[in-house]
Amino acid sequence: MDNKAFFNLIYGICMLSSSYEGKTNGCIINTCIQAANDPARLAISCINGNLTPELIKKSGIFTLSVLDQTVSFDTIKRFGLQSGRDVDKFEGFPVLSDSRGLPYLASEADAMFSCRVTESIDLGSHTLFIGEVVDARVLSAEPPVSYAEYHSRIKPRAKSEPAKEIVGWKCSIFGFQYEGKELPEDFMCPWCGHPASDFEPVYAG
Ligand SMILES: Cc1cc2nc3c(=O)[nH]c(=O)nc-3n(C[C@H](O)[C@H](O)[C@H](O)COP(=O)(O)O)c2cc1C
Q1: Atom 4 of ligand 1 has which residue's CA nearest to it?
Q2: Residue 55, exposed/middle/buried by CB under 10 A (0-12, 13-18, 19+)?
C-alpha cells in the first residue's frame, strides 16, 4: 500500500466545539463532510482520548466553525496543538454563541453549523460522529481554507538547526515519537494518521 495516496485527499479545516456540565472546549479538525441531506447531516472524525470528543459523547452536541483564508497560525495552534485538559482555550478569545451556548469563531470563519449527534461509530483510533444540522449560518464571504494550504502557507516552516543532532521525530498532533534520524516522507502517525509534515524534530541531549 502506498501511504502517499492519502495525501491526495483534500480537506477543509474547522474549529469544533462542545460543552458538558460547564466545561467548554474546542479543537481543530480537517475531517468534516456533508454526509447526507434532508435532514442535512455532517460527519466528523475525532481522535479518541482527546477532550473535545469526550464532551461530544457526553453532551450529544457540537458546533463547527469553518475556517477561512484569514485564519492565523496562532488560532490553529490555540485549538489544534494543545489540549483543553491543560488550558482554557477560549479564555480571552473572541467567540459568539449558538442557541445551545456552544462557541463559534467571531472572525476567521466563513460559516458555522450547530449539530446534534444522531450516530457515532468507534473506529479505534477515532470516533466518527454523524450530526444532524439544527442551525447553519454564513459568516463571511472569505473562501474556506484547505488542509493543504495550512501546510504550505500557514504553518511556519521548521527552522534548520544544523548544530543539533536529530535523534527522532514527534507528531505535533498526538505526540507519537518516531525513533531515528530520518523520518520517511510517506510516514503517517500510527496514533492519529497525520503525515510526516506534522512531525517536529527531536534533538539529542
Ligand atoms: C491542521 C490540523 C488538523 C487536525 N485534524 C484533526 C481531526 O480531523 N480530528 C481530530 O480529532 N483531531 C485533529 N487535529 C488534532 C486536534 O485538534 C488536537 O489533537 C487537539 O489538541 C485536541 O484538543 P482537545 O484534547 O482539547 O480536544 C488536527 C490538528 C491540526 C493542527
Answers
A1: 29
A2: buried
User: What pLDDT shows up at residue 161?
Assistant: 61
Which amino acid does the sequence have at 35? Answer: A
> Residue 46: CB within 6 Å of ligand 1?
yes
Show the cell assigned to 43: 460527519
Q: Does the C-beta of 47 come closer than 6 Å to ligand 1?
A: yes
**Residue 14 in this model has a pLDDT that exceeds 70:** yes
pTM for the structure as a whole: 0.89
Question: Closest Cα to residue 153, out of 93, 76, 46, 83?
Answer: 76
Task: List the domains of the chain with CATH numbers.
Answer: 3-150 (2.30.110.10), 159-203 (2.20.28.10)
Contact 128, 121 (CB under 8 A): yes
pLDDT tens, 120-141? 999 999 999 999 999 999 999 9
